[in-house]
Model the fold of this input.
Amino acid sequence: METRMRNRNAITLLLAVGTVLVVATTVLRAQGSLLQRAKTVFVPLPKVIASPDNPITPEKTRLGKMLFYDTRISIDGTVSCFKCHWVNLYATDGLPRAIGNNYKLNPRNAPTVFNAAGQVSQHWIGNRTSVEDQAKQALIGPPSYGLASYDDAAKRLQAISGYRPLFEQAFPGEKDPVNANNFAKAVAAWERTLVTPARFDDFLKGDTQALSGAGQTGLTAFIETGCAGCHGGAYVGGRIYAKFGLRQPYANLTHSKEVDVGRFAVTNKEKDRYVFKVPMLRNVEMTSPYFHDGSVPELANAVKIMAQLQLGVTLDDDRTASLVTFLKSLTGQIPDDALEVPVLPPED
Amino acid sequence: METRMRNRNAITLLLAVGTVLVVATTVLRAQGSLLQRAKTVFVPLPKVIASPDNPITPEKTRLGKMLFYDTRISIDGTVSCFKCHWVNLYATDGLPRAIGNNYKLNPRNAPTVFNAAGQVSQHWIGNRTSVEDQAKQALIGPPSYGLASYDDAAKRLQAISGYRPLFEQAFPGEKDPVNANNFAKAVAAWERTLVTPARFDDFLKGDTQALSGAGQTGLTAFIETGCAGCHGGAYVGGRIYAKFGLRQPYANLTHSKEVDVGRFAVTNKEKDRYVFKVPMLRNVEMTSPYFHDGSVPELANAVKIMAQLQLGVTLDDDRTASLVTFLKSLTGQIPDDALEVPVLPPED
Done:
């Protein structure tokens, strides 16, 4: 009797151990395969976003960071890059649409400049080819810095004499380095260092513990729901253009006050009507409000709207929460350097 | 012959050594007496500007610094303390007059918040009793944050749930700590740490080498011209009120577009017409443009105008330059903590 009990206990124990082993192996294999699967869609962030046309140097980034903060260059003394890209709000401004000089409303929501240099283009409709192009055109953008010309920009930069040696160091050998082109190069070089690695990157590099169970479930949902179809790569988006509202007009579900023709305004081609650059989802948790017009403030709501508009999928609250959990794992570390504001030279 | 030559050489040497000693002693005595004289007018900056009503704690300053940067509390999402007090522009905004929510023009130039807590009052006409009072009233100031009420401010603060634990830690034991009063206390506690010691403080503490010869000449001129009569104390001003334009109407020399009645607007007493708080001159080099209406951008020009308006003295270019050299020795070190921007909690 006792022996039979002991045998039965031993068998129960063996079965239990076996079950644990099978479950553990399955989980590991599943994690392994989720990682494999994720790696076919995403890559970790680079350390900096290099460009052969504008090499990153310490002299350039030091100057670029200062210029990023200098309102005195703008037409009314209120606009700097920082005005719409508060680095401590993850380089956005918390507004539906950005506000420029003389309180002029910009056509669209200010996208973050963190990790931005890696995208196919800049701005929601891709009408800026690079961060260099964006920084330069901002100087004469009517709802941005509002300057009359690049010459005017150069004059304003030259009027703060403390900048001259910094431009000379950043652009050695140039005769008149204090100009709009170099303003743009310096600002953009600094932006190319604003990369925010996150838990998700650790996961992609093989540390499967970096994402919680819920985070991994969310990642699976992100891939299986179809989000990753557009939001892939190192930036979880920012690589392609797509029509906003594939299944139905976007304004059916967003709280948009007007309808934006999107990239049609750039190309004048019918196929680009309502087409926008697919935004990066890096730091999306921190960059409310959402969409090109900032019409939706809540992340969960934005996720639900996207699933309906683009995939025709109605997400329940659980799956939405799961996707949001994954999206939060994209919130990265802001480089220390970006969180130190640079003291600016005084006006003469 | 040789002996006589040697004697003559020895005498020449003795005379030379004697002269050097006399000169050195005179210089040292003069330096000593300039230091003595300066100490009757000025005192070095304190480390922080403490207040029994609002003790400085790390929890309070951490929260206060975050709130200082948060635009999302304001009526249109564009105003924070930082908007008019860019810490990297020495806590001013470079504008003649500050611009608030919905691009509303403020009545006067934004004064720096560095060292500000030590002044007799806040704002140009002393209509804010303390930095706490200033921070609180800014929330409902029509050209500032523009909120309808302190309750509205509390609701906006409560809507960013990440603030709740920070308020609880900063104000332990309070039942509903997320409110406008505590917003003001936290911001002001942080501002009370924004003290910028300069070379001039080292000099006042006895290091006579801390000011160059030109700086000491400038300091002497500052005292002897009469500037120090009003601009004294730890903050080189900020202690008393005085009529702007004692010798002639100020608008004769400034480029003021309109005439400001000054403190008369607060007290309604005739004696306060054109009376303003004497501004601190700490960091004056870095806080152009000058005067209550920011009507004069050049420091040297502002110095000349002040001498004429207040003292009836016409300064020549040399004496002006000398005064400016001294004033530049008041440019202080911004605390490291102030130059690190705080990451803000996301909107829910």
